[in-house]
Amino acid sequence: MNLNFDKQPIDILQALANWGLIFGVLVCIGLAIALIMSVANNKKKGVSRFFENLGEGLRDLFGMSLKRLGAIANLTLKEAIRRKALLVFVVFAVLFMFGGWFLSDTNNRAELQLSVYVSFVLTAIGWLIFPVALILACWGIPEDIRLRSLHTVVTKPVKRSEIVLGRILGFIGVGTIVVGIMSVLGYVWILRQVPEEVQSRLVARVPVYGSLNFRDREGEDSEAGVNTGDINPYRSYIEGASKARAKWTFDGVSPGVLQTDPETGEAALLVENSFQAFRTHKGVIDEVLHGQYTLVNPETDLRVQLPQFPIYEFRQNLAWIPRELIYYNEETKETETKDLFDDMVSDGKLIVEARCVDVGQFLGMARPDLFLRLPDRPFASSFFKSVFGIWLMMVLIVVLGVTASTFVKGPVATILLFTLILVGTGFNQFMDDILSGEVRGAGLVESGIRILNHGNPIVEKPESLEESAAVQGVDQAFTGMLWGVSHIIPNFNMFSFKAYTASGFDVPMKVAVLPALLMVIGFFIPCLMLGYFSLKLRELEAK
Question: Is pLDDT above 70 for 536?
C-alpha cells in the first residue's frame, strides 16, 4: 500500500470560507423554514413569535452554566457505566490475550511483523470504540424520554442546550476512558511483542519531502518518466545507463537536518529511498540493481557525484552523505573536496538527482520514494497521535449521534448515523474525484446522454453536448449540490492515521492531525444548535 504523501497542509482560510458558506446557507434555509412555520401556526403574531423564539434560543446557547453542564455530564457518565458500557474491555482483553497466536508468523520479516502488530492494535481500538460511541450517543436521550427521566430534568432550571451539551460531554468522557485505557495497554503490548532484532525500528521517522521532476533518456526535462505498463501510474520509471534522471528539489535544508552517522560518528545527511525495479532482461538474477545520487547546487549548477549503491526493494535503503564531500571531478580529472552546505545548498535549496546504473533496466519512483530524514522521534509520538485520531472520530460520532437522537428515536438515529459513516468512509473519495474532474463524463445529464448513445467516458464530448447551455447548466447545478453534500457528510477516513504509524513514520500535524481536529470543531457548532432547537421543539410526551 502506498501512502498518499502528496497531501498539502490544510489551507485554514479556505477551510473557514467553505465552512462559513455552507453554515450560512444551512442557517438561512433553517430560518426561512422556521419563519414560514411560525407564520402558518400563529398567523399575525407569527413574525413576532419567531423573533422571540430566536432570541430565547440564542440566550440559551450563549448563557449555559458550567455547573449544570458538569452535573449532567457526570450523570451521563455514571449511567453509561451502569449500562455496562465498559464491558468492551472484556473483548479487548480477549483479543490481546490470543491475538499474538494468530499474528506471529516466522515466515514474515521482523519489520513486517512490527507493522502487523501496530495495525492490529490501532484497528482493534477503533472498531471497539465505534459501537460503544454509536449506541450510547444514539440511544441516550430517546431512552430518557421513554423512561420519563427527562421530564423531571426539564422542570428544573436546566436549559435544553445544557442537556444536549451535557450529554455530549458525558459520552465523550466515557469514550475517553475507554480509548485511554486501551491505548496504554495496546502500547505496552506492542513493546512486548515486537522482536528484539527490530526494536530499533520502533521509531517515528520524520521525513522532509521535495518536489519531483524528471529528465528523459536524452536529458530533456519531463514531467514524468517512462510508463512500463503498470496500470497504476503512481510511479514513473527512468531508464538505466542513459541520461534519464529523477530530480528532487528540497527546500529549507540547513545544518539542523544533520544526524550522527553510526559508522563514522560524524554529522551527515541521511537520505532514504524506496525505489522499485523493473527488469527488461533477467541479467544476473542473484544481483540487485544499482543506483547513484548526484548532488546539484540549484544556483551554480555545481554537481557532485556520489558512489553507487544497491537497490533493495521493499526495504529501507539508507545513504549517509557526509558534510565534507570528497569526489572525483570528471572535468578536471582531479579529486576535489566540497562542503555540503557552503558549496551545494543555495538559499536552503538542494537538488538530489537519482539515476539507474544498469543497462536495459529501469528504476521506478514517486515523490515520496526519496526523502531527507530528520532526527527520529519516539514511537510513542506517532502511536498516540494515531490514538488521538481515533478519539476525534469517537467525538464526532458522539456529536452526530446525540444530535440525531434529539429529533428521531434511537433505532432511527442509529441507522441514520451508520449511513453517514458508511457514505463518509466509502464514497467521499469518489465524490472528490468527480469534483476534481478525474472522473470523465461525470455530469448527471451528460452521463445519461452518453449511456443512451452507448458512449463511454473515454470518448471526447460530442459537439452537441459542448454547445448545449442547458446540459452544462444543469450539470453545474448538480455539481454544486454534490460539492455541498461532500462537505456536509464528514470524511471519516481523515481520522485514520495508522498507515503512518504502521509504516514507521511520525503523523504530521499540519497534514493529518489539524484537518481532523478542524473537522470535529466545524461539525460541533452547527450540531449543537440543531440539537438544541430540535429538543426544544420536540414533544417529549411522544415516545
Answer: yes
